[in-house]
């Protein structure tokens, strides 16, 4: 019963370093999402992939890139980390587009950028 | 403009009290979906309920109940006889048929149940 698995769970970076957050789901879901959660701001969508081979920007895409490697995996990359990207990152998936189905979330990655 | 507003930032109640978490949403779509998620201190997000815009029937699940009123654009969540395990941050969320994959979360209400 793995569901959505995110790695790593915690990470500390220095400003300017790069890093890739990994996400994998084993529920045969088509759509996958990356969110960031900041205090007092709820969850905000960074990027999503409606299906394998497609990716689209969400509300806050600047400073990030994504790759939908296959149906199971959706990675988020920070090319040059900035302190403003300190946040908790959540990956989510749903069987079809989010509008009609609840999303299943991973446990989050806590990222600190010094 | 915020599409989902959870005006209550923090609420504290004493165990066994009832508590209602408010959620007000904004949309021009006629077809939309509303969700509630729970985020316990451990950090994961747990799906609680989904309603579509055509179903205004209130729902009860154990100690949890939801009151969906299109007339006031509200989807409120009530916990009856609260327990310490209910302590968490609760998020209301909206998705619209017209925007498919865009999922709008409120800022969350932090509920503390005091034993």
Query: What would you report as the Rg of chain B, rounded to the nearest angstrom?
Result: 14 Å
Helix-residue proportion of chain B: under 10%
Strand content of the residues of chain B, in percent? over 45%
Radius of gyration of chain A over alpha carbons?
13 Å
Number of strands of chain B: 12
Beta-strand fraction estimate of chain A: over 45%
N/C terminus separation of chain A: 35 Å
Regions with little confidence, pLDDT below 50 for 5+ residues of chain B? none
Average pLDDT of chain A = 91
| Total number of helices of chain B | 0
Oligomer: heterodimer
- Shape, per Cα inertia axes of chain B: globular
Mean pLDDT of chain B: 92
SS-derived structural category of chain B: mainly beta
Order of helices and strands of chain A: EEEEEEEEEEE
SS field, number of helical segments of chain A = 0
Largest sheet of chain A: 7 strands, mixed
Which sheet architecture does the biggest sheet of chain B show?
Answer: 6 strands, mixed
Low-confidence stretches of chain A: none
Largest interface: A-B, 28 and 26 residues
Q: Can you tell me about this structure?
A:
The complex is a heterodimer of chains A (114) and B (115). By secondary structure, chain A is mainly β. Chain A has no helices and eleven strands. In chain A, the strands form two sheets. In chain A, strands 2, 4, 5, 6, 9, 10 and 11 form a seven-stranded mixed sheet that branches. Chain A starts with a strand and ends with a strand. The mean pLDDT of chain A is 91. Chain B is mainly beta. Chain B has no helices and twelve strands. In chain B, strand 8 and strand 9 form a beta hairpin. The chains are: A mainly beta (114), B mainly beta (115). Chains A and B meet through strand 5, strand 9 and strand 10 of A and strand 5, strand 6 and strand 10 of B.
Keywords for this structure?
heterodimer; A: 114 residues; mainly beta; seven-stranded mixed sheet; 0% helix; 51% strand; B: 115 residues; six-stranded mixed sheet; globular
């Amino acid at each position: 019963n793995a569901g959505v698995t995110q790695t790593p769970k915690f990470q500390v970076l220095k400003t300017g370093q790069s890093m890739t957050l990994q996400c994998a789901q084993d529920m045969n879901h088509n759509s996958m999402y990356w969110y960031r959660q900041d205090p007092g701001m709820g969850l905000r969508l960074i990027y999503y992939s409606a299906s394998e081979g497609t990716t689209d920007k969400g509300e806050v895409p600047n400073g990030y890139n994504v790759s939908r490697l296959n149906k199971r995996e959706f990675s988020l990359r920070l090319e040059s980390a900035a302190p403003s990207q300190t946040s908790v990152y959540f990956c989510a998936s749903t069987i079809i587009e989010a509008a009609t189905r609840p999303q299943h979330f991973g446990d989050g990655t806590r990222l600190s950028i010094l | 403009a915020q599409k989902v507003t959870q005006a209550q930032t923090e609420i504290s109640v004493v165990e066994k009290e009832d508590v209602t978490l408010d959620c007000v949403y904004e949309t021009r779509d006629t077809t939309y979906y509303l969700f509630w998620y729970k985020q316990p201190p451990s950090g994961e997000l747990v799906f609680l309920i989904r309603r579509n815009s055509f179903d205004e029937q209130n729902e009860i699940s154990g100690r949890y109940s939801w009151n969906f009123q299109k007339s006031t654009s509200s989807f409120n969540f009530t916990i009856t006889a609260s327990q310490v395990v209910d302590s968490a941050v609760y998020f209301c969320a909206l998705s619209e048929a017209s925007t498919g994959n865009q999922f709008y979360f409120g800022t969350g209400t932090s509920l503390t149940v005091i034993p």
